[in-house]
Amino acid sequence: MGKENPNLVSLSYEIAKYEGFYISESLAQRNNNPGNMEFHEIYKERYGASLGDGGRFCYFPMVGTGWIALKNLIREKYVNYTIFGMMCKYAPPRENATLKYAQQIADNLGISIETRVRDYLDTGNIGKDKPLREGAGQKELRKVSGGIKIEADGTLSLEY
Fold first, then answer.
1. For residues 27 and 24, what is the distance between their CA atoms, to the nearest angstrom?
2. What is the pLDDT of residues 18-51, one digit of tens each?
3. Cα gap 57→128, rounded to integer Å
4. 16 within 8 A of 105, measured Cβ to Cβ
């Protein structure tokens, strides 16, 4: 078995932390589901998951299985997204503080919310100070959250 990608471990850890996995008796902890992933049949087929506490999220038979499912989800579904784009799908704005979620993860990893997950997993050396290419992520941001505006200097603001 090969060595785990430390950046994938770090990204998974930050998601689990935001999802409350490290809080005693939290829903994520009770369900052995560090990512608080919603139940879908594919998780039953691949990992033996069932519908957990709360009636919406996966219950994994072992916490290690929950970690594997989260890491595979990131690798298989979100690798071509930016951190912000991933969070818009993973924790949609209609029910989450998506920008706050993405920003906290990015800050804790030392990257920008506009860093592509693939780039972070491949290198891990993309710091927040590295300039983005012009127009990076703007279409994605406007499409997913119309209330978010990118300023000329690359900073984000909320439009009311």
1. 9
2. 999 999 999 999 999 999 999 999 999 999 999 9
3. 33
4. no
Closest CA to 31 of 88, 105, 23: 23
Q: Strand, coil or helix: what is 38? A: strand
Q: What is the pTM of this model?
A: 0.76
Q: At what angle do helices 83-90 and 98-109 cross, to 10 degrees?
A: 140
Going by the DSSP 8-state scheme, the letter that residue 126 receives in this structure is: -
Task: Name the nearest CA neighbour of 74 among 30, 82, 57.
Answer: 82
The dihedral through the CA atoms of 27, 30, 36, 39 has a sign that is negative
Locate 117 and state its tokens: 């997950």
Burial class (CB in 10 A: 0-12, 13-18, 19+), 75: middle
Amino acid at 39: F
